[in-house]
Write a structure and sequence with these properties.
647 residues; alpha+beta; seven-stranded mixed β-sheet; five-stranded antiparallel β-sheet; 38% helix; 20% strand; disordered C terminus
């Protein structure tokens, strides 16, 4: 038993020695392997580090950038581009990659200098300041033209191996080819390419596309491999504007302002049969490509002294569209609405006569007619009341209608509320209600004073009078198309309501024609040789009364019997000593129509002659007992009876 115990202890000692030896051997082998691995790492890092760095870079996601969409174009009705986006290129460099190998730096900097004129010292400065950046946009060289880009791409193609760490990203910049033309209508974009005014703002959602995205990485040869999800471009807005008509109108405005001048001048030219606006402008114009530049309107010294708040006020005044954003008392251009309402309601009739003795006593005041100083117009037909702009007869028509009916027609003609024109900044004007209109307000409103309107309201209302009696919503956009030309939506049916009967409209067209064609008509200077023009003048004294400040206007149409174009002109406070003469507006309208009508396919007829300028009317009033407005005897009066001398 003793021998067996000793043998067992001996075997244990042998087993332990063997185990220690094996562990020592394993440890030695691990140590040797670790030493060899470290040596290998040192060797690879020293001799093949660049190659392995490239393999690592090839496995990394390198870029993920937005791809810019192209904002939709705005065109005129004939396809001429009024606003478009031009492709430019941003120059982007990768400082980290350029610093990773000296072989890249000199060839790349040399190519940048040849193509874009960027000195090597500038690139070195950027590399030094941004050593870890992998995306640096060269701000000064942000918008590069196609020619310089093409030259760089050729250099890059010749030396792909060494010209590295540079790429070009596409971007779009908004451009307005006609600069100032139709600035009030087109509007402009802010720095983020979002619409800030005009059509650009009103149709911003349609013009705006959707961004794409560019993903990229470097392969083992350090070539940039990209995957691009394309952007979706914005829709095209086809406006109702005709750039030829718009341009001619603005040329006439500039000429007027240079020769005469005014506080404001505005003009709308539109199609009365569907509400499309061919041209709309107010003065002054501004450059859509640089809408915040005030240097054309103020001196350097003025701009230096101007506070930022004042600059913003001046910019807002410059951008303001007088045709839709300003309200005013229209004066006698509103008289056709009163006459139309009275005819439509049977308050008066074609051929009916009244007697104008120079004015009327209404409540506590005496309201004068334009012919007050001459003793009145005498016996006057409804047509002559419009032709001579007789306030006395218009007050009688307003009284005959009564305030309820009168206001019904005012509202149906769209006055006192926004027309819904597709432009931002529209004002609504202010008209009376039954609660606020008394006899005096009814009397003055009947001939266009005391209530306020906007130009676009008046143009739309007048269009309803002459087109057969239907009111169309005025608009500046014809349709919205995809980039490929498919129609997305169309404003081809903007009929809102019937306002007056066709028969009333026919009578008014005749009255308006006589107002221009007859030598004694107040609007005769608006005539154009070869065209039948119908229209009405307005001479409204501005508040406060008695200061000698007037708003002069003319609203008209052609051809008079079946109008295809309406023109509305306002000259606010012409820069002359004696303001209250509508000839400033009528002659302007005549000059514009003569030049623009052929562009609408309306050509002169040699058989139609332009009337001579209207002479001053010499009124001789027949004797009466009470001096009130009276209806003419059956059969009316002769010229001798109502005594307009010199006709």
């Amino acid at each position: 038993m003793a021998r067996k115990a000793s043998d067992t202890r001996g075997n244990v000692r042998v087993a332990k020695k063997f185990m220690y030896a094996r562990l020592l051997f394993i440890f030695a082998m691990v140590l040797i392997a670790f030493t060899l691995l470290m040596a290998r790492i040192v060797y690879l890092g020293k001799n093949k580090g660049d190659a392995y760095e490239r393999k690592v870079l090839a496995q990394q996601s390198y870029i993920s950038n937005v791809v810019q969409y192209k904002r939709g174009d705005i065109t005129d009705r004939n396809g001429n581009k009024l606003a478009t986006s031009i492709k430019v290129y941003n120059l982007v460099i990768d400082p980290k990659l350029l610093l990773s190998d000296e072989e890249f730096q000199e060839p790349t900097m040399d190519a940048l200098n040849k193509a874009f004129g960027i000195p090597a010292r500038k690139i070195k400065r950027i590399l030094k300041k941004n050593p870890s950046s992998q995306y640096y946009v060269m701000k000064k060289f942000r918008h590069l033209g196609a020619d310089s880009v093409e030259e760089f791409e050729k250099l890059q193609e010749k030396d792909k191996k060494h010209i590295k760490g540079v790429w070009l990203e596409e971007e779009y910049v908004r451009n307005y080819p006609y600069s100032t033309v139709a600035c009030d209508v087109i509007g402009f974009c802010n720095s983020n390419e979002d619409g800030a005014w005009g059509i650009e703002k009103e149709y911003n959602s349609s013009l705006t596309g959707s961004y794409g995205r560019s993903y990229g990485y470097f392969d083992s040869g350090l070539e940039l491999v990209r995957t691009i999800k394309p952007a979706v471009n914005g829709h095209t807005i086809v406006s109702t504007i005709d750039v030829n008509i718009q341009g001619i109108l603005e040329q006439h405005m500039e000429k007027f302002e240079k020769n005469i001048g005014s506080e404001n001048i505005g003009c709308i030219i539109m199609n009365p049969n569907n509400g499309e606006i061919y041209a709309m402008a107010s003065y002054p114009f501004y450059n859509l490509n640089d809408p915040r530049d005030l240097s054309d309107f103020y001196s350097e010294n003025q701009l230096e002294k101007m506070s930022e708040k004042k600059k913003l006020e001046n910019l807002n005044a410059l951008w303001r569209n007088y045709c839709i954003s300003d309200s005013y008392e229209p004066g006698s251009t509103l008289k056709p609405l009163t006459v139309a309402a009275a005819l439509d309601e049977g308050v008066t009739s074609d051929g009916r006569y009244y007697r104008c003795d120079g004015g009327q006593q209404v409540s506590d005041r005496y309201i004068r007619c334009v012919a007050y100083a001459k003793g009145g117009h005498g016996y006057t037909s409804v047509c002559q009341a419009l032709k001579w702009s007789c306030n006395d007869v218009l007050m009688a028509l307003g009284k005959g209608l009564g305030k309820t009916k009168f206001l019904d027609y005012i509202n149906n003609f769209g006055l006192g509320r926004k027309t819904g024109i597709d432009l931002p900044g529209e004002a609504s004007g202010a008209v009376f209600t039954e609660n606020t209109m008394g006899p005096v307000q009814l009397a003055t409103s009947s001939f266009g004073q005391s209530q306020t309107v906007t130009m676009v309201q008046m143009a739309a209302a007048f269009s309803a009078i002459v087109n057969g009696g239907t009111y169309y919503q005025p608009h500046v956009v014809k349709e919205i198309n995809t980039e490929a030309g498919a129609v997305v939506s169309s404003n081809d049916n903007m009929l809102v309501r019937r306002v007056i009967t066709e028969e009333t409209s026919k009578i008014l067209r005749n009255y308006l024609y006589k107002t221009v064609s007859d030598k004694d008509g107040t609007a005769s200077p608006a005539g154009v040789k070869g065209y039948e023009i119908g229209g009405k003048t307005g001479t409204a004294e501005k508040q406060p009364r008695g200061k000698g400040n007037y708003l002069l206007s003319f609203i008209g149409c052609t051809p008079a019997d079946k109008p295809e174009a309406v023109i509305y002109v306002i000259v606010d406070e012409p820069h002359v000593e004696d303001q209250p003469h509508s000839i400033y507006a009528t002659e302007f309208a005549s000059d514009v129509m003569k030049d623009i009508l052929p562009f609408l396919g309306l050509y002169p007829d040699k058989s139609v002659k332009k009337s001579k300028k209207n002479p001053a009317l010499k009124i001789k009033l027949p004797s009466t007992k009470d001096g009130r407005l009276i209806e003419a005897p059956k059969g009316g009066f002769s010229n001798k009876d109502y005594g307009v001398a010199g006709q």
